[in-house]
UniProtKB/TrEMBL annotation:
Pfam (any one): TctC
SUPFAM superfamilies associated with the record: Periplasmic binding protein-like II
UniProt lineage: Bacteria, Pseudomonadati, Pseudomonadota, Betaproteobacteria, Burkholderiales
Sequence similarity: Belongs to the UPF0065 (bug) family.
Protein name per its UniProtKB record: Extra-cytoplasmic solute receptor
Record field: transmembrane: none
Amino acid sequence: MERRTFLAACAATAAAPWARADTGYPSQPIRWVVPYPAGGGTDVLARTVAEAMRGGLGQQIVVDNRPGASTNIGSQIVATAKPDGYTVMSADNALLAYNEHLYRRLPFHPDKDFTYIGGLSRFPLVLVVNPAFAAQTFQDFLAYVKAHPGQVNYASPGNGSPHHLAMELFKHRTQTFLTHIPYRGAAPAVQDVMGGQVPCMFLDLAAGLPVIQSGKVRALAIGAARRAAALPHVPTLAEVGVADAEVYAFQGLLGPAGLPPAITARLNAALNQALAAPEVVERMRAFGMEPLAGTPEQFHALARAEARRWGPVIAATGVKLD
């Protein structure tokens, strides 16, 4: 989101009469469910923003990691929680754009069972390999996997994660075949890529930037429309000849369906305030993250647009999780 759009959104939030109304909320700590393990980009972002929101809300926000089932375990907790503003969650591509296409049956739907509070961040995915892997460049990598169909494994934080779907899209666009090794979270997946147990993966820039800069993994291409400022030497997938393969993770804050408008507005105001805090901006930029401050409606529009974009892609790749 452009800076002027962000400032306008914040100004509108601050000026709204319900944002100033004293509803008595919150009067106790808030539970923030993260549907991934501790240590990954989602967890780091949630803890950073939750700490910054504490000042605006006057209450502690406790992060509760509930990983598993392509975020469905954590999502179910929030979908069935009381809509009183004391249970919220990090939601990403999996819940908001993928799962309705990956599962034949889901106990909840992102449009029916959740309240959109606001956006958190967007960050691109990067194709990385172990430094000892034979491929030094993207062209080397593509040639190698084409010459060894099915023999190259790739890691991901789990079935249905943005990282998993990014590689499936890559395979579809390049007509290659790699074997998926799902993990329970980004941290163990990248650990095995660094250790050489699995040679490659798509890694979100938030979790990947430190290990890329330290040389523990080698970045071959980035799934963004343009090169990342933090990695100016890494070409985009489009630059290396893979068209229509922009892949990124986006995240936002959700609550259960039926969250009262005054509480939604209070949380949105605190969220936007946190995303504008200099220490949060600095940390997000250090991890290659782009803030997604704005209104609940703007975040909902982004999520639905991504669901429409990925539906045909998932159908074409043939990926199903049930």
